[in-house]
Each structure stands twice: as C-alpha cells, then as structure tokens.
Amino acid sequence: MSKQKITKEEILAKAWRLFHRHGYYDTSLQLIATAVGLGKAGLLHHFGSKEQLMRQVIDFAQVYYAERVLSELEGEQPFADRLRRFLDHHVQLCQLDRRGCFFANTILETSADGLFNDRLGQFHAHWIGAVRAALLPHYPTAEAAERAYRLFADYEGSVVIYKLHGDAEHLHRFVNRSIAGLRLPIHLPVV
Does domain 1-50 correspond to CATH entry 1.10.10.60? Predict the structure, then answer.
C-alpha cells in the first residue's frame, strides 16, 4: 500500500498544531515527521531545518490569522459588532486544546533567543495595524493607535490569566471589557 502524498500546507498545519501543543523546543522533527507520514529526512528535504520549518509555520499561521480573524474587522456593520466578532474568534482560538495564543506562547518561549522575533514582530504589527485602521474612523489617529496597543496588551494578559486558571471567563471578561471600553475616554501617554 503506497503512502498518500501530503501537501506543504497540510504539513505546515500539522506542524503548527504540534508546535502550539508542545512548544518549539519540545517539538522534535521526528514527532512532526511521524504526524505527517514522512521520514525525518523527507521533512528536512522540504524545509531544511527545524528553525526553517518553524519560520514557515509562523508565516502560514499569520496568513490563516489574517484571512480568518483580522478579516472580521472589515465590513459595513457597526464597529462594536465587528470588534466583538474579532475578539470572539480570538477566544475560540485560545480555547483550542486550552493552549492560549500560538503567537504569544512562541514569543514567551523563544524571544530571548531572538530566533523568530522578526516574524513574531510582524504578527504584532499586523494585529495593531488592523485594529488601529478599524478604529480610525471613530477616533483621532493617536487615540486609535493607543487603543489598539492597549487592546493587544489586554488580550495577551487575559490569555495568560486564562492559561493560569483554566477559566474561559477571563477571556469573556476581556471581550466585554473591550466593547464597553469603546465608549470610555482614555488618556494618551505623554511622550
């Protein structure tokens, strides 16, 4: 019986799930190769190294995220409705296997080594940029930027608390707090 061919996208999706579940350092190439039905040498042939595979996984995850999550901010519906869909999607992703945010987990695990800081920084910039752009019709430029920054920081903090306690209520409170906060004034930091 011959092995079925697996696409590059299928390899990246399975590797993404494994890196998310076990972390970068605790996910071996052999574990990924076994999961995708290839030998370790076959995996290395396609990606060169574990580090190069992870770089492509991060890129793959960013495209997935942009198409399925950031896109929730677009449309003609009231901004609060679009923001709620966007944040609710985050909550759903965080609750998969109770692993939290793939990007945040990878930042926490690997940022001291700087291995993926360039790509993870791109994720942060895209997140902030998309939220800021969605806020711009409703707030002045500096305020939209500050609100986007605070929303990201609050999200990541809420994910950490969720992971600590295993209680999704921390994520739901974040969503509700964020929607309610749209009506509240903020003070911009003094630069």
Answer: yes
